[in-house]
Write the structure tokens for this entry.
Amino acid sequence: MEECKKKEVEFELMKELEQKNTLIDNLQTASLKKELEFKENFEKFTANDSKISLKNEKIDNLEKEIGTLKASNVLLENEMEECKKKEVEFELMKELEQKNTLIDNLQTASLKKELEFKENFEKFTANDSKISLKNEKIDNLEKEIGTLKASNVLLENE
């Protein structure tokens, strides 16, 4: 009986040993799976970290390009503002030149009118003077006629 108990204990120990071995195998398999999963995740993390670094570098480059373009835009806007100022200045100079030409033309016309007025005034004065002389001559002739008529009347009466 003792032999039977020994065998039974031995059998139970063997069974327990087999369960422990199965448990060890399962734990080792799980550990290997976890290790493999860790390696895969680490590789993904490393790859993602590399991708993030590349993305950050690209972001930095894009931000630099944006800064350069903004600076370029400011320069272009300043140039355009200068061009507009020069355009306005040119238009004002053109308008000023037209006004000066108009003033010159008006002054020339005014001088011509003044000269024409002087000539006409001189003619008027000369004509006025001639008229005065003619009136004076008419008066003298009328006096002479009056005198001659009176003389004729006297002579007729004699």
